[in-house]
Amino acid sequence: MELYEREFFIGNILKGYVRHKVDKDIYIHINPPSLDEYIRSLEVFWDAYEEATEEGVMSYDECLAFMIDNEVWSVEQAQEVKTLEKRIEKLKVEIFKSFFHSEKREKARVLLNQLKEELTELRIIEHSFDHTTTLGVATYAKNAWITENCTTYQDGVPYDWKHIDVQRGMEIQNNSNISEEVIRDLVRNQPWQGFWTLKGEGENFFGKHPAEMTFNQQHIVSWSEAYNNVYESMECPIKAIVDDNDAFDGWMIDQGEQREKDRGKKQGEEVSEKHTDANEVFIFAPSKEDAERVNDLNDPATKMIKRQRMQKIDSSEGVEYQKFADVKMTLTKQAHDMQKNRNK
Fold first, then answer.
1. What's the whole-number mean pLDDT along residues 267-273?
2. Which of 181, 167, 173 is nearest to 12 (CA)?
3. Which neighbouring-strand residues pair with 153?
């Protein structure tokens, strides 16, 4: 993105409202709500939610059941969403770890983009009936109230909706939302970096309560904080990785997984300290998910031993503990050490 393009986007973010021409020489400003207006909109939301419930509008779960009954959505598709999310995360990590292997990196990126499209298509179907639910009705009422009551002429006089209706105003507002890709590009480059550096320690950049900030303002502040934390980290990746959204996401995912493993390892060490004389410690896991977490406490060598033991069990009707390969090696070593001590 060129500098003049960034300046245009940043200017729109800084002004904090959407300026739209509705007629010859007539412009309106679609403003974010003040804190009082935001709180009032929550009351509108709650009133609409209760009214929709009383009138028998479907809840989210009821809508989901309706979609499944009418073959609009399925349990298999819901599972596919989860699978795609996990695969997308793994591919981002792969892009990060193979960043200097361009062929492997770009091959993973092609597949990643395909999976992103598949996930988007599934999410469109999944949420295609959201507007018919109690939550959807209430959310629409809230957003419509904000648009209707926070839109003015240029001189600040409340807009009378002579030229467009409220729904069109909501569309204009939604269309003004800047994509995440653009926001992240703005955050990483000038002139925003200079603005952010000069904001002052601990100060609110826009001088507003977060509820009074626009969608774009909230997102640019959120990403600015995220990147700033990374820049200050001792483990900050090189600029080329930071500038590559997929690789940077992969780095953050990898860092998160590593921190989780370190916490698990620490907890595992605490358990082991209570059983210092034991070769093995068994921990009860009530579910498959719990079992996976317990298994992650093991180091790679121990996981390899577990796999070897399971293969031995699967290939035999029964096997004695002493017949496991790792146990036989341990016993042999112990016998050898004992013999050496006798010969001293």
1. 59
2. 173
3. 28
